[in-house]
């Protein structure tokens, strides 16, 4: 479904990504792991058109999407939820969600879509009229994910959805990600919480200073001694 073919990307002279080859099949959850600055966010930015690669190509469902405008990439069905839950703090929950639906298919009634979304996120339904900025951190993350779902993505890319959240809330967020996936949305997940990210994923890639250093089946990676030692905080 998604293929990155030998991607290299720079910020000015800074080499953020080198020769990244990565694939995501339809229906999978794929996790992208690595330390701070390894290039995880940059990889998502290349896919969503926010960072133009210097070399290589990105393909989505057989279309070459390299260098396309981010809006066009959204039209192809790729939604990127960036790190830091960029919701609109002074708009209500319902207004934030409505904005997410701006590219919804004409055949879909956005009010029906909103009702579907509230089934996933009952906590947001209770807070429809509350300003986004007054939600708790976990609720804001749910709103960010919910807003992404309003655009009916085929591929949902989440950048560190667990960042700064309490362990119980993180569990809820991961449950929601799993449910979204089970209903047909393919997921590319960036996480520093490697333990959780490997548990939920089918496959994973591990980045180190802009290069992929390990990749494979998530279960195999979770039991690999080298991976355990370097990324999972155990020997
Ligand atoms: P984190 O977990 O800290 O978000 P990351 O794995 O997502 O890290 P990236 O944000 O992709 O890493 O950063 C990869 C490299 O590119 C880092 O060396 C970073 O300093 C650099 N970088 C990222 N954004 C920019 C930018 N806008 N300008 C210059 N350098 C950048």
TrEMBL record:
Gene3D superfamilies: P-loop containing nucleotide triphosphate hydrolases
Entry's Gene Ontology BP terms: L-amino acid transport
MF annotations from Gene Ontology: ATP binding; ATP hydrolysis activity; branched-chain amino acid transmembrane transporter activity
This protein's UniProt keywords: Amino-acid transport, ATP-binding, Nucleotide-binding, Transport
TM annotation in the entry: none
Pfam families according to UniProt: ABC_tran (PF00005)
Record-linked PROSITE patterns: ABC_TRANSPORTER_1, ABC_TRANSPORTER_2
UniProt entry tagged with the keyword Transferase: no
Domain ABC transporter: 2-234
Signal peptide: none
Family: Belongs to the ABC transporter superfamily.
Name of the featured protein: ABC transporter ATP-binding protein
């Amino acid at each position: 479904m998604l293929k990155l073919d030998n991607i290299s990307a720079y910020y000015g002279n800074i080499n953020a990504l080198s020769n990244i080859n990565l694939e995501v099949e339809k229906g999978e959850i794929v996790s992208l792991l690595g330390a701070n600055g390894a290039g995880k966010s940059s990889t998502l930015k290349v896919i969503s058109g926010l960072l133009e690669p210097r070399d290589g190509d990105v393909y989505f469902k057989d279309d070459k999407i390299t260098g396309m405008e981010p809006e066009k990439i959204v039209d192809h069905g790729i939604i990127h939820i960036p790190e830091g839950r960029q919701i609109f703090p002074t708009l209500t929950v319902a207004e934030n969600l409505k904005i997410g639906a701006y590219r919804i298919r004409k055949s879909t009634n956005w009010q029906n879509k909103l009702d579907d979304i509230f089934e996933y996120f009952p906590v947001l339904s209770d807070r429809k009229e509350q300003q986004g900025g007054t939600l708790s951190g976990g609720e804001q993350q749910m709103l960010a994910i919910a807003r992404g779902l309003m655009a009916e993505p085929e591929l949902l890319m989440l950048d560190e959805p667990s960042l700064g959240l309490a362990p119980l809330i993180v569990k809820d967020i991961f449950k929601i990600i799993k449910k979204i996936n089970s209903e047909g949305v393919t997921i590319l997940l960036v996480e520093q919480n490697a333990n959780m990210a490997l548990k939920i994923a089918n496959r994973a890639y591990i980045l180190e200073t802009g290069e992929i250093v390990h990749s494979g089946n998530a279960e195999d990676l979770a039991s690999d001694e080298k991976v355990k030692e370097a990324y999972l905080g155990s020997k």
